[in-house]
Amino acid sequence: MPSESVLFKVKGFQEFEDLLLQIRDDFGVKDAKNILKTAVKDAMTPVLLTAKSLVAVDTGALRASLRIEHDLLIDEIKILDMF
């Protein structure tokens, strides 16, 4: 079976990292994490709505279980705790 791979090129990440650090410096770590939680939730809401509209429905339990868990993502963002 042939191996398939996907290559992604990310541009602008340094600018994003600089922005995160600026938010942290301007507002502090706790507020910066809250700002990011809100941004993640807002950004992922259309994805959640699309997923809920496309999921196969038998009992509806799977659709009802779909949610945005931004706390887990933000806990993994260690850049705010740097320096």
Give a quick rundown of the structure.
By secondary structure, the protein is mainly α.
Rg over CA atoms: 17 Å
Q: What would the average pLDDT be, to the nearest integer? A: 82
In what range is the share of β-strand residues? under 5%
What structural class do you assign from the helix and strand content? mainly alpha
- DSSP strand tally: 0
For the biggest sheet, the summary is:
none
Order of helices and strands: HHHH
- How does the overall form come out from the CA principal axes? flat
Q: What does it look like?
A:
There is one protein chain. It is flat and about 50 Å long. The chain has one domain (13-81). The chain is mainly α. Helices cover 64% and strands 0% of the residues.
Blueprint (SSEs and pairs):
Elements: H1 13-27, H2 29-54, H3 61-65, H4 70-76
Task: Write a concise keyword list for the protein shown above.
83 residues, mainly alpha, 4 helices, 64% helix, flat
